[in-house]
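thought: fold this chain, then report.
action: predict
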Amino acid sequence: MPKHRESLISAYHNYLVNDMLSPGFFVGDPHSQDDFYFLADIMLPEEAIPPISARLFDRQGLLLLELKRNSLTENPGHCTLETTPGGFRIVCPSDELLLEVNTQKFANGYLTRIKAQLYDGGNILRIEPLHEGVQVHGQACLALEAPFEFHKR
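observation:
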């Protein structure tokens, strides 16, 4: 029996995740106060770069950074956010690439490719490269139907 795969496709913008197109997805729990999460949110027509939010850890389980809609809000790992044509990248002080987000414009819309190998606070692999996109592991929503709304803290 074929395995069911959750998918929606946006006419405007999609991410390449688990070899599928998705208008937005998350891994982990974006509502958590302290745990790992990665949110590739729905890109609205007035936006040029898709909004990424995340709480990222190193392999020892130490918090590296918190990112809210492409802006560093916490950065105990002293990472650097660099703007690139079509997106941005985050580099660790050791020059290791932590995350790269690259959006390409086509005649009918946008496609964002993410490059990352991300671990949660327990050193469990949650996101890794897969072909031109990423593969996600563990608790995830692979197809957002509306922009994500954070709970107020």
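thought: worth noting. The chain has a mean pLDDT of 92.
final: tokens above.
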